[in-house]
């Protein structure tokens, strides 16, 4: 440390002041740029001794104050902050904002914006060294950045040397449904159709959607025989995009609740009475005879 601060320890009475003397000890410092140091002062409060009657229930708070100490060599001229700040140069390197300072002065930002967004206080605390540069990581500040979440498959291993090849990329984007078979609660136009096991796979647009065949949609009450978009489609082949075949139709799957909602315009539905059962699901019953007699 090229400076000596005296006194190193002193008693400070209430409502009084203490003067510190800072002197160089002869250790060499750069002559072409500023140097910065921190002076740390700790205030130790007095407390009553244990045998004092008023010593019970005490709480002592220690206050630490840190101050910056700048040393400017005699050869450096005093310049206005505006003149120095205008020489700063910024550029972006990936997710980092880099500030280049060609001047011999330390610089601290009071406010810094990237676009219309201000950087947070942690980045503002970083000083730019003289004839050097400083990096601010944009992803940790308040600047929005487009980046997907990443889940390390190795964390699924029960042992550190166990190889894990599970593909977790489908979980990297919020709201995305992984491909697979799900036992879902199926609702059509807010009417519960019961539980069904459906396969969810990517369609031609790369979106994971439930596989709905024309035959299954007809079973759910969609009037596929009257809709021209369904003519010529194989009955047991899943449709590519239901919302394209039926305008204003909506498909929504809540993975957390395992609930699949189909919203179909009423004009595309079969004209059946509410609560009716398809005759194809009727059975022949059992042979029976009803008899009655009276005396």
From TrEMBL:
Record Pfam families: PapC_N, PapD_C, PapD_N
- Residue span, Pili assembly chaperone N-terminal domain: 2-76
Keywords, ordered alphabetically? Chaperone, Fimbrium biogenesis, Periplasm, Signal
Q: Its Gene Ontology biological processes?
A: cell wall organization
Looking at the record, the residues that make up the Pili assembly chaperone C-terminal domain are 100-141
Keyword DNA-binding recorded: no
**Family per similarity comment:** Belongs to the periplasmic pilus chaperone family.
Q: What is this protein called?
A: Uncharacterized protein
